[in-house]
Design goal:
The chain is mostly helical and 291 residues long. The chain has 14 helices and two strands; from the N terminus they run H-E-E-H-H-H-H-H-H-H-H-H-H-H-H-H. A hairpin with a 7-residue loop joins strand 1 and strand 2. Helix 3 crosses helix 8, helix 11 runs antiparallel to helix 14 and helix 13 packs antiparallel against helix 14. The radius of gyration is 24 Å and the shape is flat. The mean pLDDT is 91.
Length: 291
């Protein structure tokens, strides 16, 4: 009986394995291997060892700037974006009047393409006709003029504002975990005299750590791959104040440095794996929350 079931298990795994090997493993392997080559996309790749990585880390400061920006955006994601989404989830969990409507409205930004949002924000932050500057001038600051995306002092913050409060994925993840908590736990804690804050701290937060960890992983990895919001607004500028690894990858491609671009992609994959490993450890995501 065991052997019979084992055969069916393998049979169901095979299609998934074929899809993974064809569409994921082979491209990833190609990225890793061609990262050690000089390749312009027309001629055969030529092995050059670690030259692409040497150029990336020692001959150019773009990777340093990109990693610093990524670190700052990752901290914003982990300590503002995810907590904001979780806070909205806790409010909805109380089911106030109109919570279903708010949940629907909160979803709207996620059904609009990131590139469309980037264009919308170009108009919002426009100096002459943008909503933000016009609002500030209406408040009495008639001489206020700032090109948010083109001023080195504000460009990083302007880019951050294009995504930091759109946290519906975080909200849905946390809300689904909150709703799965047995009400008997809350009732027992209330009978024992626990306050609402103690119930959140002692029961809710430990039981939703999986969704919080997942939200952090998704949010930080989205910062590693963030491209449209930057490219369609600042293109990594002014100077290199909003430059990131995805724009580095794009620059490598349009300059026909596919080997270098794949070396950059390799760094992105390693960063993603690192984020996954660290977050899994911190949030104890490999352990059951009900043990």
């Amino acid at each position: 009986m065991y052997k019979y079931n084992k055969r069916w298990v393998y049979l169901f795994i095979v299609p998934t394995l074929i899809v993974f090997l064809t569409f994921y493993f082979v491209p990833i392997l190609t990225v890793f291997t061609t990262g050690f080559t000089e390749w312009n996309g027309f001629n055969a790749p030529k092995f050059i060892g670690l030259a692409n990585y040497k150029m990336m880390f020692f001959d150019d400061n773009s990777i340093t700037v990109s990693l610093i920006n990524l670190l700052k955006w990752s901290l914003i994601a982990a300590f503002i974006h995810v907590p904001f989404g979780a806070l909205v989830a806790f409010i909805m969990y109380k089911r106030p009047v109109g919570w279903r409507f708010v949940r629907g409205v909160f979803m709207i930004p996620n059904v609009i393409a990131v590139s469309a949002w980037a264009i919308i924000y170009r108009f919002i932050f426009n100096d002459q006709m943008g909503l933000l500057n016009n609002f500030i001038r209406k408040l009495g600051f008639s001489d206020f003029h700032t090109n948010w995306f083109f001023d080195r002092q504000y460009a990083f913050s302007a880019i951050s504002l294009t995504w930091v409060f759109y946290a519906v994925i975080v909200t849905l993840l946390v809300l689904s975990d909150l709703m799965a908590i047995p009400r008997e736990l809350h009732e027992a804690a209330t009978i024992d005299g626990a306050t609402e804050a103690q119930i959140h701290w002692r029961i809710n937060f430990p039981l939703i750590r999986g969704s919080l960890g997942t939200a952090v992983i998704l949010s930080v990895i989205a910062r590693i791959t963030m491209f449209e919001a930057i490219f369609l607004t600042t293109k990594g500028g002014p100077g290199n104040s909003t430059y990131n690894i995805s724009v580095m990858l794009y620059d490598g491609i349009i300059n026909y440095q596919f080997g270098y671009a794949n070396a950059v992609a390799t760094v992105m994959i390693i960063l993603g794996i690192g984020v996954l490993a660290i977050t899994t450890k911190v949030f104890k995501m490999n352990k059951s929350v009900y043990n």
